[in-house]
Protein backbone atom coordinates (compact mmCIF):
# COMPACT_ATOMS: atom_id res chain seq x y z
CA UNK A 1 0.00 0.00 0.00
CA UNK A 2 2.90 2.37 0.72
CA UNK A 3 4.29 1.83 -2.77
CA UNK A 4 1.03 3.04 -4.30
CA UNK A 5 0.60 6.19 -2.19
CA UNK A 6 4.23 7.37 -2.43
CA UNK A 7 4.12 8.10 -6.21
CA UNK A 8 0.76 9.80 -5.84
CA UNK A 9 2.04 12.08 -3.08
CA UNK A 10 5.26 12.78 -4.97
CA UNK A 11 3.44 13.64 -8.20
CA UNK A 12 0.97 15.91 -6.37
CA UNK A 13 3.86 17.77 -4.69
CA UNK A 14 5.54 18.22 -8.08
CA UNK A 15 2.31 19.48 -9.63
CA UNK A 16 1.83 22.05 -6.88
CA UNK A 17 5.48 23.16 -7.17
CA UNK A 18 5.09 23.59 -10.93
CA UNK A 19 2.34 26.15 -10.35
CA UNK A 20 4.70 28.53 -8.56
CA UNK A 21 4.30 32.21 -9.31
CA UNK A 22 7.34 34.11 -10.59
CA UNK A 23 6.37 37.76 -9.97
CA UNK A 24 9.61 39.29 -11.26
CA UNK A 25 9.16 37.48 -14.55
CA UNK A 26 5.58 38.70 -14.96
CA UNK A 27 5.73 41.07 -17.93
CA UNK A 28 1.98 41.58 -18.18
CA UNK A 29 1.34 45.32 -17.90
CA UNK A 30 -2.43 44.81 -17.51
CA UNK A 31 -2.21 44.03 -13.80
CA UNK A 32 -4.53 45.93 -11.49
CA UNK A 33 -2.13 45.77 -8.55
CA UNK A 34 -0.05 48.75 -7.40
CA UNK A 35 3.58 49.05 -8.40
CA UNK A 36 5.61 48.15 -5.33
CA UNK A 37 8.64 50.05 -6.61
CA UNK A 38 6.81 53.39 -6.43
CA UNK A 39 6.43 53.21 -2.64
CA UNK A 40 9.15 55.07 -0.76
CA UNK A 41 9.29 54.68 3.02
CA UNK A 42 9.82 57.86 5.01
CA UNK A 43 12.91 58.51 7.06
CA UNK A 44 12.50 57.89 10.79
CA UNK A 45 11.18 60.83 12.79
CA UNK A 46 13.74 62.81 14.76
CA UNK A 47 13.29 65.22 17.59
CA UNK A 48 14.78 68.59 16.62
CA UNK A 49 17.31 70.31 18.84
CA UNK A 50 15.09 73.36 19.10
CA UNK A 51 11.43 73.63 18.18
CA UNK A 52 11.87 77.37 17.64
CA UNK A 53 14.45 76.73 14.91
CA UNK A 54 12.08 74.62 12.79
CA UNK A 55 11.16 76.07 9.39
CA UNK A 56 7.62 77.16 8.62
CA UNK A 57 5.46 74.35 7.17
CA UNK A 58 4.97 74.42 3.41
CA UNK A 59 1.65 72.77 2.46
CA UNK A 60 2.19 70.57 -0.58
CA UNK A 61 5.95 71.00 -0.30
CA UNK A 62 8.66 68.67 0.87
CA UNK A 63 8.98 67.39 4.38
CA UNK A 64 12.10 66.79 6.48
CA UNK A 65 11.31 63.07 6.55
CA UNK A 66 10.77 62.76 2.78
CA UNK A 67 13.34 60.72 0.92
CA UNK A 68 15.31 61.96 -2.07
CA UNK A 69 16.32 58.77 -3.93
CA UNK A 70 18.56 60.57 -6.41
CA UNK A 71 20.57 62.33 -3.68
CA UNK A 72 20.78 59.11 -1.67
CA UNK A 73 22.14 57.25 -4.72
CA UNK A 74 24.76 59.97 -5.27
CA UNK A 75 25.89 59.69 -1.64
CA UNK A 76 25.94 55.87 -1.83
CA UNK A 77 28.22 56.07 -4.87
CA UNK A 78 30.61 58.41 -3.10
CA UNK A 79 29.45 61.75 -4.48
CA UNK A 80 28.12 64.94 -2.97
CA UNK A 81 24.42 65.61 -3.61
CA UNK A 82 24.84 69.36 -3.19
CA UNK A 83 27.51 69.58 -5.86
CA UNK A 84 26.62 71.17 -9.15
CA UNK A 85 27.80 69.55 -12.36
CA UNK A 86 30.60 67.05 -12.75
CA UNK A 87 33.67 67.43 -10.55
CA UNK A 88 36.91 68.12 -12.40
CA UNK A 89 38.33 64.80 -11.20
CA UNK A 90 35.56 62.89 -13.03
CA UNK A 91 35.67 64.88 -16.28
CA UNK A 92 37.76 62.28 -18.12
CA UNK A 93 35.42 59.49 -17.02
CA UNK A 94 32.33 61.35 -18.24
CA UNK A 95 34.04 62.16 -21.54
CA UNK A 96 35.00 58.52 -22.09
CA UNK A 97 31.53 57.26 -21.17
CA UNK A 98 29.76 59.69 -23.52
CA UNK A 99 32.21 59.49 -26.43
CA UNK A 100 29.62 57.86 -28.70
CA UNK A 101 26.94 60.40 -27.82
CA UNK A 102 24.12 60.39 -25.32
CA UNK A 103 20.62 59.53 -26.42
CA UNK A 104 18.19 61.58 -24.36
CA UNK A 105 15.02 59.76 -25.38
CA UNK A 106 16.23 56.20 -24.73
CA UNK A 107 13.15 55.20 -22.72
CA UNK A 108 10.73 56.32 -25.43
CA UNK A 109 12.82 54.61 -28.10
CA UNK A 110 12.92 51.32 -26.19
CA UNK A 111 9.17 51.48 -25.52
CA UNK A 112 8.46 51.98 -29.23
CA UNK A 113 10.82 49.14 -30.22
CA UNK A 114 9.27 46.81 -27.64
CA UNK A 115 5.74 47.64 -28.84
CA UNK A 116 6.74 47.01 -32.45
CA UNK A 117 8.34 43.69 -31.50
CA UNK A 118 5.25 42.52 -29.63
CA UNK A 119 2.98 43.46 -32.54
CA UNK A 120 5.27 41.60 -34.92
CA UNK A 121 4.84 38.47 -32.79
CA UNK A 122 1.19 38.46 -33.80
CA UNK A 123 -2.14 38.08 -32.09
CA UNK A 124 -1.96 34.30 -31.84
CA UNK A 125 1.29 34.49 -29.87
CA UNK A 126 -0.70 35.60 -26.82
CA UNK A 127 -2.95 32.52 -26.84
CA UNK A 128 -1.42 29.77 -24.72
CA UNK A 129 -3.00 26.54 -23.52
CA UNK A 130 -0.72 26.33 -20.48
CA UNK A 131 0.94 29.02 -18.37
CA UNK A 132 4.32 30.01 -19.77
CA UNK A 133 7.19 32.11 -18.53
CA UNK A 134 6.76 35.25 -20.65
CA UNK A 135 10.13 36.60 -19.51
CA UNK A 136 12.05 33.59 -20.78
CA UNK A 137 9.93 33.48 -23.92
CA UNK A 138 10.54 37.15 -24.69
CA UNK A 139 14.28 37.18 -24.10
CA UNK A 140 15.32 33.68 -25.18
CA UNK A 141 16.97 35.02 -28.35
CA UNK A 142 19.17 37.36 -26.30
CA UNK A 143 20.37 34.58 -23.99
CA UNK A 144 24.04 33.69 -24.23
CA UNK A 145 25.29 30.14 -24.44
CA UNK A 146 28.06 29.95 -21.83
CA UNK A 147 29.89 27.21 -23.71
CA UNK A 148 30.04 29.29 -26.91
CA UNK A 149 31.22 32.39 -25.05
CA UNK A 150 33.87 30.43 -23.20
CA UNK A 151 35.11 28.88 -26.44
CA UNK A 152 35.23 32.27 -28.17
CA UNK A 153 37.28 33.80 -25.35
CA UNK A 154 39.69 30.85 -25.32
CA UNK A 155 40.22 31.13 -29.08
CA UNK A 156 40.97 34.83 -28.65
CA UNK A 157 43.68 33.95 -26.14
CA UNK A 158 41.94 35.33 -23.06
CA UNK A 159 42.70 33.28 -19.95
CA UNK A 160 39.40 31.83 -18.74
CA UNK A 161 38.51 29.75 -15.71
CA UNK A 162 37.32 26.22 -16.24
CA UNK A 163 33.62 25.95 -16.95
CA UNK A 164 31.26 23.08 -16.18
CA UNK A 165 30.90 20.33 -18.76
CA UNK A 166 28.11 20.59 -21.33
CA UNK A 167 24.70 19.65 -20.07
CA UNK A 168 25.21 20.85 -16.49
From TrEMBL:
Keyword Signal: yes
Signal peptide: 1-17
Keyword set, alphabetical order: Signal
Chain residue ranges for the region called Disordered: 44-69, 144-168
InterPro entries reported for this sequence: DUF3035
Source species, domain of life: Bacteria
Pfam family, one: DUF3035
Keyword Lipoprotein: no
Name listed for the protein in its UniProt record: DUF3035 domain-containing protein
UniProt source species: Tritonibacter mobilis F1926
UniProt lineage: Bacteria, Pseudomonadati, Pseudomonadota, Alphaproteobacteria, Rhodobacterales
